[in-house]
Structures are given as C-alpha cells and as structure tokens.
Amino acid sequence: MSNRIKLIFKCDEANHVCDKAQYKNASLWEKITLHIHLIYCNACRKYTKDNVKLTSTIKKSNIKCLDHKCKENMKKELNKAIKETSIN
Amino acid sequence: MSNHQINPNKWIDLYSDYLFNYTISRVSDREMAQDLVQDTFLAALKSMKNFKGEASERTWLISILKRKVIDHYRKINSKKGKAEIRITYNDDSESEGDWLEERVADPFDKTAEDTMENEELGEAIFNCLAKLPEKQADVFRMKTIEGLETEVICNELNITASNLWVIIHRARHAMADCLKENWF
C-alpha cells in the first residue's frame, strides 16, 4: 500500500505545500490535498490566507534587489576602502 | 544629541538592497544603479566625520545617494548638450486633427500616488526583512524577490532543499506577522 494516493495532510505538510504553492512549486495533486485540508483546519486556513497576501503584496511592490555576487563584490571594494581610510 | 552610531562594515548587509531599490526606480538601469549605490557607500565612507548622528544611518546614506542620482542626470544631460524640445504637428495621418493633449501619455496609467504608495510599501518590506535573522533574510530574498530556483539557492548557500523550505516557512511567517503590524 506504499503507493496509495494521499488524501489527508497533517498541518505541517499542508503548510509546506502552501509555501511551495507560493512559488509555483506544488503539484496539482498536492494543491487539491491542501484544499481538502483547508476545509476542516481553521489554523491552516489562516496561515494560507496570510501567505497568499504576502505573495501578492511583494508582487505588487515590484521591489528589486542586488544579487549575491554583486553584494560580495561591493563588500570587497568597501572593505578595501575602509582599510585605506583607517591607514590614512 | 548623537543617538545614531555609524558602522560601515554593516552597510552592505543592511542597506544595499534598500538603496538599490530606491535607485532603480529613478534610473531604470541595473548596472547604473549598482554603480551609484557603490559610489554612495564610498562617498559616505569619505565623509563619515560629517555624520552627526541626528538622522539614522539609512537616512544619511539616502541623502548622499539622492545627490549622486542628480549628478548622474546632470552628467548625461551635459553629454547630450542642451536639452531640446521639438513638437511636430500632424506628422502622421492617423492622428491628424487630434488635440495635442490627446497625444501625451495616459495620465491614469500610473499616478504619483501609486508610485508613492509603492515606495512606502517597498520601505515596509525592507524594514521587515532587516528584522529577520541573516540566513532567513538571504534565502527569502533570493527565492521571493530574485525568483531563483531552489537548486540554485541550495548550491550557493550550501543547504539542502528541505532545509531551504524550513527557512522559507519561518521567514514567511515572520514577514507576514511584521507586515500585518505595519502594512496590511
């Protein structure tokens, strides 16, 4: 019975799928099972609502940020400059 | 009263994203925005002794950045020479007979209020992000704002996928709570 289709999620599994769904990483079946869980679980319904709102807020804000590599380069340059100023 | 301390070693971690976001909405060019942010940090370092501690470190850095952005526009304008505005009337048959007002960009496309609200929202998000532990903030930023794939983040930060999802879960929980207090 190992490959039996899972219909019932525990709360932590439901939250995990909800997180994945925010990045479009959840499968259709996972999403269906999540919604079945949400029918009877109030706490997860609340978490899902907040989570979806967070995703839409960030999308709406259209914020941009620097990539990791660029930040490392900036750090290097700045540290070099800090050393130079402390020597002078 | 000098209430605010200055610490250049923390600048990149704390403020680079905020400054970058501020710049990119004004110069619309990634490379140029990166350069301006970098220049700002270096200029701030040079004039550190002028920091009186009256405003926060971030406000002070933004004031330097503002001048850098203005200088940038001044420079490209002087390269172009004198600005010249020329309006040609009815150069194509389709718009012939239209009032001049009808030809300008749609004023309802994006209003000043929208832009302002977006800037405030961006600020609220970066404030909340600054409250997260460093690792959570890094993972959340890479996954949510940069939109990187799970494998890429795992490779770069040397963590497992399940580890990443646990971090993401904690970060999202904290971000939602923080934004609920300050924004929602």
List the helices and strands and how they pair.
The complex is a heterodimer of chains A (about 90) and B (about 180).
Chain A: H1 11-22, H2 28-40, H3 42-61, H4 68-87
Helix pairs in contact in A: 1-2, 1-3
Chain B: H1 11-27, H2 30-46, H3 57-80, H4 112-131, H5 134-145, H6 150-157, H7 161-182
Helix pairs in contact in B: 1-2, 1-3, 1-4, 2-3, 4-7, 5-7
Describe the structure in your own words.
Chain A is built from four helices and no strands. In chain A, 74% of the residues lie in helices and 0% in strands. Chain A has one domain. Chain B has seven helices and no strands. The two termini of chain B are 34 Å apart. Chain A binds chain B through residues 15-16, 19-20, 22-23, 25, 47, 50-51, 53-55, 57-58, 60-68, 70-71, 74-75, 77-79, 81-82, 85, and chain B through 8-9, 11-12, 16-17, 20-21, 24, 30, 34, 37-38, 41-42, 45-46, 48, 118, 121-122, 125-126, 138, 141-146, 150, 156, 165, 168-169, 172-173, 175-176, 179-180, 183-184. Chain A: This is Glycine dehydrogenase. Chain A: It comes from Mariniflexile fucanivorans. Chain B: It comes from Mariniflexile fucanivorans. Chain B: Belongs to the sigma-70 factor family. ECF subfamily.
CATH superfamily of the largest domain in chain B: RNA polymerase sigma factor, region 2, helix turn helix motif
Percent range for β-strand residues of chain A: under 5%
| Sequence stretches where pLDDT stays below 50 over 5 or more residues of chain A | none
The average pLDDT score of chain B comes to: 81
Main sheet attributes: strand count, strand direction, barrel closure of chain A: none
Mean pLDDT of chain A: 87
Strand content of chain B: under 5%
What is the subunit organization of this protein?
heterodimer
The largest inter-chain interface, given as chain pair and residues per side, is: A-B, 34 and 43 residues
The number of distinct structural domains of chain B comes to: 2
Our measurement of the CA-to-CA distance between the termini of chain A, rounded to an integer number of angstroms, reads 73 Å
Number of helices of chain A: 4
Biggest sheet overview of chain B: none
Summarize the amount of helix of chain B as a percent range: 55-70%
Number of strands of chain A: 0
Protein name (chain A): Glycine dehydrogenase
GO biological process, one term (chain B): DNA-templated transcription initiation
Keywords (chain B): DNA-binding, Sigma factor, Transcription, Transcription regulation
GO molecular function, one term (chain B): DNA binding
